[in-house]
Design goal:
Length: about 190
């Protein structure tokens, strides 16, 4: 099954849809909770195909994919969300501004979902991505602290001192922390 996250920054096949790929200036504010409400996410599994059976995506499917990607933002406040998933979502939200115009960037997803008549949410117009980023920044310390509280002190220290290093390890191997914990447990048993 293809990774939905791979579409976030990719220059996908929808660049021929200018209303989905263009990045106009944002002027309205986000005033509705739909962006962070994962309970309203429709089933999007029908959107994913495989190499043998590629899916012909409709414009509505593309809008739903933009919406589904935005639903990952709601997982930032959940303490049970794996650290790797939070770091991946944060990298997507806070990517370089020159990538904001790409079809599945955070900014493009906000624009498509807020403005498309095919959106699964009521029309809310253009949303300022910096206001959403500011909202995420405001809650980030608490959200990350709650997640990191589940991990040993050495993980918390590593994330605070060098989050990029931890992220690189988790990107290469999502089980890296679990493997390190297992190694420490085995080493402790040897000296017991």
């Amino acid at each position: 099954m293809p990774d939905i996250n791979a579409h976030r920054q990719a220059d996908g096949p929808y660049t021929d849809m200018p209303h989905l790929a263009a990045a106009p200036a944002w002027s309205a504010q986000l005033g509705t909770p739909w962006l962070f409400d994962s309970e309203t996410t429709p089933c999007t599994s029908h959107l994913l195909g495989n190499d043998e059976n590629p899916v012909d995506w409709t414009e509505e499917d593309v809008v739903y994919l933009h919406w589904r990607l935005l639903q990952d933002v709601s997982s930032l406040s959940d303490p049970d969300t794996p650290l790797e998933d939070k770091l991946d979502t944060l990298r997507w939200v806070f990517t370089e501004r020159e990538k904001d115009g790409r079809p599945f960037s955070f900014t493009s997803c906000l624009r498509v979902v807020g403005c498309s008549p095919l959106s699964p949410i009521p029309y809310c117009g253009l949303v300022d991505p910096e206001e959403i980023r500011d909202h995420i920044r405001a809650g980030l310390r608490v959200w990350m602290s709650e997640t990191l509280a589940r991990y040993p002190q050495w993980v918390r220290d590593a994330v605070q001192r060098n989050p990029e290093w931890v992220e690189q390890r988790l990107t290469k191997n999502p089980q890296w922390i679990n493997e390190q914990l297992k190694k420490l447990t085995v080493q402790s048993d040897l000296f017991a």
